[in-house]
Amino acid sequence: MANYSALIIDLDVRSRENNSAHHTREIDGERLIVRRGQPFSITLQCSDSLPPKHHLELVLHLGRRDEVVIKLQKERGAGDKWWFHQQGAQDEILLTLHSPTDAIIGQYRLAVLVMSPDGRILEKMDKTRFHLLFNPWCKDDVVYLPDESQLQEYVMNEDGTIYMGSWDYIRSIPWNYGQFDDDVMDICFEVLDNSKEALRNSKMDTERRSDPVYVGRMITAMVNSNGDRGVLTGRWTEPYSDGVAPYRWTGSVPILRQWSKAGVRAVKYGQCWVFAGVACTMLRCLGIPTRLITNYSSAHDVDGNLSLDFLLDENLRSIDSRDSSWNFHCWVESWMKRDDLPKGNDGWQVLDPTPQELSDGEFCCGPCPVTAIKEGNLAVKYDAPFVFAEVNADITYWMVQKNGQRKKIRVDQSSVGRNISTKSVFGDHREDVTLHYKYPEGSRKEREVFEKAGQPFPKPTNESTEPGQMQLSIKHAHCCVDLEFLCFVKNEGGRDAVAQLTMLATAVTYNSLHRGECERQTTTVTVPAHTEMLRLQYDEYARCASEHHLIRMKAFLEAPGENEPVMTMADIPLSTPELHIQVPGKVVACQQVMAYISFTNPLPVPLKDGVFTVEGAGLLYATDIHVKGHIAPGQKVSVKLTFSPMRVGVRKLLVDFDSDTLKDVKGVATVVVRKKNHWKPRLVDQITYILS
């Protein structure tokens, strides 16, 4: 040992070549980031050739305190082991490392050992670190997804679309996932390191990170802050003055960065689409194909009987109920093979990070196979009964009379789980995936699955849901100022009848929290056919309207000869104005570009405290632009912004506008960022240079 001189001069992790081959170049061009089940190479620069009978050994350490140690085999063995082979040429040794397809994801520390013929360590280089991620391009990885277009969307795309509104008036907002932005990958692992499981038993937690089911479940628990060191605190009613209102977020990256920089302190505030957006960012970053899902008319079934019971008083005002129906609810689906479940449960899995109900003692949900939901197989892990109810529950409306007796006024078997939506792989338009979750509504197969899933809560066989002779329907015009509602009354029996029609407009949040009564109108009508109009002016609903811009219209009809009164209901999202965004000229990476943003106030009142929030993956970090003074009715306000794009490619510039009165106005512009052209001499320049 005393006569031994150092052999290894330097170690090159070849990050550019490896990261390009492993689809991680977007994350980082300098650090080594690779995917499991796919070889990668590093180079040792040596002072001389390896002495005869000496050999190299490679050892990996991972975990918060290097709890897991892996010694690489020198030749290929079983498929579930790390191994390497080496090639030497003069003063350079090429080492190719092979990871198993079920390797643990995380940050590894690599130790290269020069061993003597008698097994002594002569030299040790152990400062090299790299990250290993899931590999959806590898056919033996359980997250393997064979369709390249889906991989580009569900792993590589940093821009998304989230669907909101109501089932019959779907609107969308852009979302910046930003999974390849600076620090995001490190923060994802920081989130996992702060889970209860990691803090309780770091070694066991590290070893279980080979399983995407476990990782996905930890992420759904940690995106919300209920009971742990999670990322986001949920809040569904104003005020939000001690944090950021959920509707102001336009992407996940500022949330994750704020959580990390604040010393893993929860960020305020989120609602379902924000929770889902952050989860999608984390899962895509770690290599699990993921897409964001919106379920319209989503049920929250607290007692697990696959039925929602809603109570109304005789004035049609809602009485508090544990169950609820959300205008829309967002979760994510992740693609993975489920080795822990019987055959047929592979593929898309529901993961829901919004804190709703406890699952094994934690506020998390999933992964739950979408195929199990469609077939009513509710015994599979995880949380299948809850997810099934979200898309299938029946709703029963009861009127509580003055004497306390309940009178059934409506049974609705078809409203829950409508137009289940996700962004298409082929562009910025909506793909309907409802038939992935359920058979066609009202079909025999759909009812058979419901009855199968509903045990031990079978639907009473003597209960009729056939419509009576009196029919009600509501139509409305989409507008952001004054509103008009038309209620159509029709008597299928054809005879004249006198009935009392009550129309009630209330302001609600997207998850059905009551914000106030706007207008009530009671009329005596004569059928067989009648049309009644209710007009709602801006000042009649503005005082109680929620940030979700939702008006709920109920119509209630009592007529002689009908066994039960007739009720119908519609949720009407108010239209929001447009933001106009322009980025003129040629856009080049690392060179300044100007963006112009304009907006016109459509309301009959001035807007105060106006602020534009602008961000875009690869373009710029989230930036606020405050509007000075008030924005008068009909006034156009314009702002300009200078920024320098950081990465090339097709990018999205996202803009949000909020004020004291008008909130959650979103806009997006597509920006094509080109490489910076380096000067190349023309042919004549080359000739001139040579001749000179």
TrEMBL record:
Ca(2+) binds at residues 392, 394, 441, 446. It comes from Amphiprion ocellaris. One of its GO terms (biological process) is nervous system development. Belongs to the transglutaminase superfamily. Transglutaminase family. This is protein-glutamine gamma-glutamyltransferase. SUPFAM superfamilies: Cysteine proteinases (SSF54001), E set domains (SSF81296), Transglutaminase, two C-terminal domains (SSF49309). PROSITE patterns: TRANSGLUTAMINASES. InterPro entries: Ig-like_fold, Ig_E-set, Papain-like_cys_pep_sf, Transglutaminase, Transglutaminase-like, Transglutaminase-like_sf, Transglutaminase_animal, Transglutaminase_AS.
